[in-house]
Amino acid sequence: MTACRHERDVRDAAADERWTPELSAHVASCRRCADVALVTRALAAPVAGPQPIADPHRLWILARNRRRQRAEALISRVVMGVQIAVSVLGLAGLGFAMMSMESWSPSALQGGSSTLLAAATSLVLLTVVGLSRLLSKDA
Ligand SMILES: [Zn+2]
């Protein structure tokens, strides 16, 4: 196949998509120029396929949100641990107070010790709820 004198004009026309009627007629009749036009169009076309992996700004926002979530989870665990420790200490204090009472009988529950019993029950519930939340987060 020999070079065609219109090859350069065909390449420029194909790259810019500006065809003259004479050049279009020549490409229809010259196989070499038809190939040049085809290859030039293919190389000039935008590359189809996946876009860039991710926007850096979006990646930065996702990383920031993930750091915040980790910090919140850590703080939540610390608060829950303190809550459980306070509940256990409160229960121990209440138990000690009840054991040190001189008259421990059902009639004593009607007085001030019923308040102690209610506080002990609420502390037990608080401890159970805190432990269940701690265990459910670990799972
Ligand atoms: Zn030609």
Account of the protein in words:
The protein is 76% helix and 0% strand. The mean pLDDT is 82. It has five helices and no strands. The chain is mainly alpha-helical and 139 residues long. It is rod-shaped, with a radius of gyration of 41 Å. The protein folds into two domains: 7-44, no CATH class; 56-138. It has helices at residues 7-16, 21-29, 31-44, 56-100, 112-138. Zinc ion (ZN) is lined by residues 4, 6, 26, 30, 32-33.
From the structure above, extract its key features.
139 residues, mainly alpha, 2 domains, rod-shaped, binds zinc ion
Quote the distance from N terminus to C terminus.
73 Å
Roughly how much helix do the residues carry, as a percent range? over 70%
Shape: rod-shaped
Bound molecules: zinc ion
Q: How many structural domains in the coordinates?
A: 2
**Uncertain spans:** none
- Structural class estimated from helices and strands: mainly alpha
Largest sheet: number of strands, sense, barrel closure: none
Query: From N to C, what is the helix and strand string?
Result: HHHHH
Number of strands: 0
Write the layout of secondary structure elements.
Elements: H1 7-16, H2 21-29, H3 31-44, H4 56-100, H5 112-138
Helix pairs in contact: 1-3, 2-3, 4-5
Write a brief caption for the model.
The chain is an all-alpha fold. It contains five helices and no strands.
